[in-house]
């Protein structure tokens, strides 16, 4: 029986996404040569398919009858191991993720995983653990994971997912081989998205821009009608910067989405603002570009980075019972401070 602190890994779809075929082939070759890393960190932005790649790699590690070994190998989908993975979950493949409203993986979960790692496999030749995501480990859990990463048993493989731009202990990174998971090219991403959505080409282009080219994130944004909400948020921020809206009014469209997504939006603009300080043409969000270029021209580049740091500080406090409205108003106020003339003190 699976430990209640960890979940059996389950998926009825073993193949990687189309844009991952080459990296999948390279890793399958390393497996056939006995060079597959025992701790592999999949690093990339949200929505590029890190989890599906991890599931696909887990299926390779577990399958008893790989198809085309060494030539773009794939799990057979029919052996006992594949049936377990595609059924209720494989007992030798575990998934570690937050199990409550805290948004964090706790130390007792990592300790439970450590116990599983030290046991012999139940039905397969190997054990696999997928950790989603490394930045969702609280400090104690991260330190506990280090012990498992230092000397994993020969039959154990850890696949650690890490969202680009989010903090993770350097000691965890140093104990993993790091593989960047990239988004596909624009043409491929748009074609994939067009097969799943009915929006016109302009709407698909816009969603992909907002998602940083990540197809799965663009799909999620479209399904949740985030483009419409995003436009409302941008308009509210622009009006707040001009003092046309009070902060309590400007924050309303941001409150219509989950706090983490509102912070994602503001953080994306903050990163673009920091880039604009060095290169005004380096802005990814074309709709926000005029506002960001204007703000970048008013401040020293070093000052622009502090806005991103302020949002990261809010993120670090999400483990506590924070008030979303107050947190977002605080971030919006930091944006409005950029409108003040350099050298003018903030009002008391």
Automatic annotation (TrEMBL):
Task: List, for all copies, the residue spans of the domain called DNA polymerase III delta subunit C-terminal.
Answer: 229-336
Residue ranges crossing the lipid bilayer per the database entry: none
Alphabetically sorted, this entry's keywords are: DNA replication, DNA-directed DNA polymerase, Nucleotidyltransferase, Transferase
- A molecular function (GO) term: DNA binding
Q: Name one GO cellular component term.
A: DNA polymerase III complex
Q: What is its EC number?
A: 2.7.7.7
Q: Which GO terms describe its biological process?
A: DNA-templated DNA replication
Q: Which reaction does it catalyse?
A: DNA(n) + a 2'-deoxyribonucleoside 5'-triphosphate = DNA(n+1) + diphosphate
Q: What is the protein named?
A: DNA polymerase III subunit delta'
| Gene name of the record | holB
